[in-house]
Batch of 3 targets.
Target 1
Amino acid sequence: MKKTYKISREPEILKPDLCVIGAGSAGLSVASIAASFGASVVLVEKHRMGGECLNVGCVPSKALLAAAHRAQRVRDAARLGIGTGEGPVIDFGRVRRHVRDVVSAIAPMDSAERYRAMGVQVIKAEASFTDARTVAADGKVIKARRFVVASGSRPAIPTIPGLDQVPYLTNDTIFDLEERPEHLIVIGGGAVGVELAQAYRRLGSEVTIVEAGERLLGREDPEMAAVIARALRREGAVLKLGLSVERVEPRDDGRVAVVLAGGERAIEGSHLLVAAGRQATLEGLNLKAAGIRADSTGILVGRNLKTSNRKVYAIGDCVGGEETSGRFTHVANHQAGLVIRNALFGLPATPSEAIPRVVYTDPELAAVGLDEEAARAAGRPFRILRWAFADNDRARAEGTTQGHVKAIVTPRGRILGCTIVGPGAGELIMPWVMAVSRGLKASDLAGLVYPYPTLSEATRSAAVEFLKPATQNPWLRRLIGLVRRLG
Ligand SMILES: Cc1cc2nc3c(=O)[nH]c(=O)nc-3n(C[C@H](O)[C@H](O)[C@H](O)COP(=O)(O)OP(=O)(O)OC[C@H]3O[C@@H](n4cnc5c(N)ncnc54)[C@H](O)[C@@H]3O)c2cc1C
Ligand SMILES: NC(=O)c1ccc[n+]([C@@H]2O[C@H](COP(=O)([O-])OP(=O)(O)OC[C@H]3O[C@@H](n4cnc5c(N)ncnc54)[C@H](O)[C@@H]3O)[C@@H](O)[C@H]2O)c1
């Protein structure tokens, strides 16, 4: 009889400088920067290269909003004397194609091929810790000098009775819709809910937002968030605020009914979007085996973004606890740079205090540093400087006068924070980011020359507000008199 031999193959052992888990915004940034410095990098991704931002987050949502904002401009054109007949004709199939085309055009930047060409070893598999110094993926054993967990987040699904009995959308699926929803009900009035609600409303859907909190965009300055709420209402979105969802029911005709607490009439819609926050993706990682601490908010990090295992960092959306500066792509990128500083060069990795955030509605809302509430909570004296876009010549010319700049400064003028709601707020926030980050004063921004007529002048006007009391200063008035006498 022929003898059979069992061939037991030893697993391949890789010993790179860095092993990065997750190829979303955070993981890709770390991998590319490390590779550019000549470090050896293994990047492990179990699903799609580019993660959430490229595939189901920032990119498709901003492409959809771009189409929606274009439709609104057509509606608004009559105010400037431009006839557009019956208003915009929305071809939802083409809108969807535009969204897909934008994602496809950016995808090569995040592709495995591009990263392999940089010298990164890309493994398409789930990564799992086997002990404090080892990760297993695709039958390979990775014993890296340092690990970076960048495993991201996914939509948090609230426990609402009946939700599991109806089809519902999240940001993972809404960009695949083939047809425009007739009536989209959105659970959650945070950034995801508000941006997508305005996008669909402007593309012609009926939209209802149900938000458990008393207002939309609960983490933003209430005065500024109210401008967005007014804009949404004016465009016909229905806002149900301060109401919790009691249950969700399917209707015989395929529609969905959302029953609200407090005896409110049930809302019936064709589609339901759950946009009720995020949950860190931790399953499959086997964090316990590596001694990495996490709680319900995500992986806990300390100084230098290190986890409780000092060889392992965590960055991006998977990070929880108090340390997180928000779940944003630019935060993920910033943290990637910090990890490189620490892991490759042994330098301290101190997160910036000046992290901006933008909600891409129209008008946009952008913020950096302290807002009024945070300044009050800090218990130190401060001043508020405001400037309305209604008093900005360019905004008047464009017919986009909603909103204002609201800056928080110390009594000596040091800029502590700024929130802008208005046209292009996401672009206008940058001098304020620079000011907060570099400890600049209102006089620094007031002293710059701004081209006329630009929206940027609203920054100077707000900053000049700080200097206005000086015009009443008796010493300065006496000085003017003295100079006058000197001829
Ligand atoms: C609708 C929407 C719009 C948004 N718009 C903006 C915006 O305009 N601006 C902005 O700054 N932010 C925006 N965000 C937030 C932004 O998308 C996230 O902050 C960012 O994508 C987080 O990047 P990340 O790399 O931490 O995580 P992710 O992009 O989620 O990447 C994590 C990757 O890790 C992989 N992974 C997980 N576990 C494992 C494992 N065990 N093994 C291997 N791979 C694993 C996942 O498959 C995933 O690809 C938006 C979010 C949403 C939902
Ligand atoms: N422009 C951007 O930069 C951008 C855009 C979208 C998302 N994001 C990121 O994604 C993160 C997640 O966004 P999000 O909007 O999903 O979360 P979020 O936490 O900002 O808002 C979720 C909202 O849902 C509400 N909610 C929760 N459960 C509810 C329930 N059962 N009924 C009614 N309301 C309920 C909450 O009160 C909250 O207001 C954001 O924090 C942000 O970091 C950024």
Target 2
Amino acid sequence: MISSEGSNAELRLRIYAEPGEEFNSKNLKVKTEVVMKNPHVKVEKMGLPVGVKPWEPTLDALRNDSRPFTDTKDLTLHLYTLPFPKGEQGDGGGGLTECLISDVLKHKILSVPGYGARVPKPAGTTYRVSEAAGKGLGVFATRDIQMGELIMAERPLMITPVVMPSRCTSELQGLSHNDFVQVKLHDAEKIFEWVVDRMTPENREALMALTNSHSLEGGGPIIGRVKTNGFGESEIVDGPGAECQYSVLCDALSRLNHSCSPNTFRKWCGASFSMQMRAARDIKKDEEITTHYVDILHPAKGRKGQLAVYAVKCTCVVCANPEISDPIRAKCLQHLQQIERQDWQRDFDVPTSTNPKPLLGNLDMYVKSGVETTDVYGYCLFMLMKMYAARGDIPTMRVYSEKYARWQSARTGLVIPQELIDKGFGMISVAEMVLRMKGKMKGKAKKI
Ligand SMILES: C[S@@+](CC[C@H](N)C(=O)[O-])C[C@H]1O[C@@H](n2cnc3c(N)ncnc32)[C@H](O)[C@@H]1O
């Protein structure tokens, strides 16, 4: 699973019925235990180990998609088709998602203000999927794309828990670690098959057409595809403590390859129940459109290890030259740690220095190093906007205000009014005051 948070909390949600009780929605119990997450497990063989009986859960236990109300405390997994309720709101034009989620998450999803909104469409065609040398397929720009532009918006094909739904662990006592994992993979594939069986034929075909980079690791074809293509999404979790994380599996978005200098931001939009991707910098026609699977500010060696989990051997220029790139990335990380402690996006105080050289130097470093998807880049644009306002240079202030607004739109998906951008997010009053003062010094007020 492609992590958005980098969290590797090893928790497992156990769905079970007491011995002798029927496995159905009324008597299912749920328990969270420390165990492995499906993206990181690997075994030599496939199928059940010798002597282990197949798990026979009943599908009815999970089939609850017609329940009108959700229990906000129920962490048991159920099958739902979203957007919900089907037929009343329709699919908002974006297609339907098959979900194996808890009521807690379903309640969260349905409570998002504006839930049921249409999935937005990019302006014209923005991308094609074609061969990416050494990486399988990839996504490429079909025209020049400006920073901030929406490139893709997609309703997921499927949302499934990161922890593997499987039989009660007590049944597996005495098994070797390898056999234990094999059973887990086998059980989980069975449950995932139910999810896939509920899909529309088009969605099922799209899912099975996705790449499986983990076909030799003992898991079934669905788990393999989830591991290869699923996104971790911070908003798609149970409860505030993220008791259970989920994997969000999309279609075209799954064709995005990893880059250590990515040119897009990925953002979940709860209202339209869609994953969206926007340009983090200007992208040229035919350029590959990329995302990041791991933290791009980590040193090359660390990234290599993390990327191996996703079956990625990155050969980009940043990875190929760690002696040059690592110190630069370390500097960027240091800058990030400095600004993380500040509420800089809401700080409209006039900067104490009006010398833009250090900031321009940093901006150049961020662009050359390709770290526009990190906050240091946005911070730099924001500070330059404020600094040029403090210098009374309205045209240059507007250049950075425009860039900062585009970057923020790409990052958050929010549309920033042009009037606000023209006014440098309010910094124009500072610029006007400075100009008036300069005018006074020369004996007359300058016209803006
Ligand atoms: C989410 S898929 C991306 C689309 C995929 N290339 C395809 O053909 O469908 C992830 C897989 O793509 C490949 N991949 C992604 N980024 C890569 C990169 N930077 N270098 C090499 N392979 C990459 C790896 O095989 C990885 O497991």
Target 3
Amino acid sequence: MTPAPVLALTTGEPAGIGPELAAMLADGMPAGGGAPDHRLVAVGDPALLAERAAAIGRALEIVELAPGQPVPPRRHGVLPVWPVPLAAPCRAGVLDPRNAGYVLETLDRAVAACRAGEAAGLVTAPLHKAVIREAGHAGFTGHTEYLRDACGAEEVVMMLATDHALHGRDPAWQGSAALRVALATTHLPLREVADAVTGERLTRLLRILDADLKRWFGVAKPRILVCGLNPHAGEGGHLGREELEVIAPTLEALRGEGLTLDGPLPADTLFTPRHLADADAVLAMYHDQGLPVLKYAGFGRAANVTLGLPLVRTSVDHGTALDLAGRGVADPGSLAVAVALAAEMARRGLRH
Ligand SMILES: NC(=O)c1ccc[n+]([C@@H]2O[C@H](COP(=O)([O-])OP(=O)(O)OC[C@H]3O[C@@H](n4cnc5c(N)ncnc54)[C@H](O)[C@@H]3O)[C@@H](O)[C@H]2O)c1
Ligand SMILES: N[C@H](C(=O)O)[C@H](O)COP(=O)(O)O
């Protein structure tokens, strides 16, 4: 029998909730339950993980793996780790720029493992963008862009999806709705957004979104709703001309390639059940046009996925939550969804 695919879990900002979420995930495995469809290895400082697990009252056995040592099957209360040492001691909730390099090193280690075939996918716990910038990594804006550059990808797409949208089943969490939201621009000041919405960018992103909905999510013919940029999608040119001059002609050209696209639609009413009913994904023009809706619908039960990379990468739908770190009260739900999605993508990848 082929061994279950390995997922590398980077544990993120050490002062945040990432390390304890990793501990919760390992401790939350049902004892003696069915064999999971993946193996999991954390990437981070073993002593930090042990200390944070103890702080939140979880009995966790940390198993440090040497280079080349196989990742064991998942077991209740056991967390295999690829060790990366912290650069400076860390207190929960207290950022320290000296550990920014450590956070990036965990990512580099996980990417190298994916590229070498040691791991079938990468799941990232949250990092803190500002502290990485403060440490001198001037161009750093997030995992998505860092991984794009690390993998030499020309373009990538950030997409968040609720659990229901990921798995097509009724989620236990009643408030959740099925939704996938991709972004045309990501971590960009609002002032720069309009200039970044170009026909070339939309073309690249929509081609990736269409192809990856087919490849990773099994959608045979994706139907994508595309938001306008301006209020009421520009109100016929009276409230902005990007819809008429950039978005509409780009969508028309892509329809000629066979993509099924609706838009540009006014974003306020696009996000209503009638419009969303038959849609497979929404492309929002900027971060806070799309993500508040997604997070209202499914915060804690959604995952972030980077499309267009040569490797599988998923993440949580939340940040470092420094206010909760070290207390054991953070919700591990989104991390569990991100792991499940990466496992599903890894299986699909293996079948291609
Ligand atoms: N995937 C990622 O790496 C990722 C994602 C989002 C934000 N961030 C980064 O995290 C940092 C902090 O961002 P922020 O304060 O805007 O957002 P945040 O998600 O860290 O916190 C927002 C609110 O949500 C709560 N919250 C977050 N995660 C939770 C969880 N698992 N369970 C319960 N409550 C939770 C927090 O306590 C806080 O009240 C920023 O640097 C941001 O860029 C990283
Ligand atoms: N925009 C994401 C969110 O709000 O959830 C988040 O900042 C994560 O981005 P990266 O995966 O690029 O770090």
